[in-house]
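Onboarding guide, step 5: your first structure request.
Type a short instruction followed by the sequence, for example:

Predict the 3D structure of this protein.
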Amino acid sequence: MAHRQQLAVRPGPGPAPSSPAADPVLGRMRALGADWPAGDGLAVFHRVYLAVTEELVRRVAAGEFPDRRAAGALGGIFAEHYLDAVEAAAEGTRPPACWRPLFQFRRHPGVRPLQFALAGINAHIGHDLPLAVVETCHTLGCVPADLEDEFERVGEILVLLEERIREDLMPGPDLLQIADPLTHLVGTWSLARARDAAWSAARLLWGLRDAPDLADEFTERLDAGVGLVGRCLLTPWH
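The system replies with structure tokens like these:
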């Protein structure tokens, strides 16, 4: 298993964790998207996810998670999956199937910002999150049930963010002709349902930890299925 970074937190109760500004995962994310044009579809998602990660680090530092060490590990490993996908694409290697539609369509003029944001969240929640839960369990020597509180707190942040995305990125009156079908398309995807499916997938993967062939097959099919949903979310409108 590849080494994954944790968010900069100290285990257990005690002094406040490191400043979010000094967090290595946040530093990588801020540097990564610094030169992407605003209209780049990956940049749209990146800004959304950077805001999520900043909020997560802030809440962990404020002691809003029952187990700061577990929250830091889960948040860091989760973010690393996204960063690995971006680096794979930049290096000319194939990222996971769930991320490929976003890289393929990131500069397509017929795809709206809302679609890019939701497609990225779909890939990250549907595929990366269950893998991150399992990897965190291996890292900390625990089981998924021990991370359920942290998982739910992270999910609460993501749901709030999804609401803001839909409010800020929905098409305006100038795009009224496509707004109805676009509203229908994005309305078929739910972060709450994706989060529930991610938790079920994590528990199933954990149950398959002694059957690596089956675990690999399930992970591959999960990746492909999430990628198919992402491709539908990125349907161009002209």
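Each response can be followed by summary notes, for example: The radius of gyration is 18 Å.
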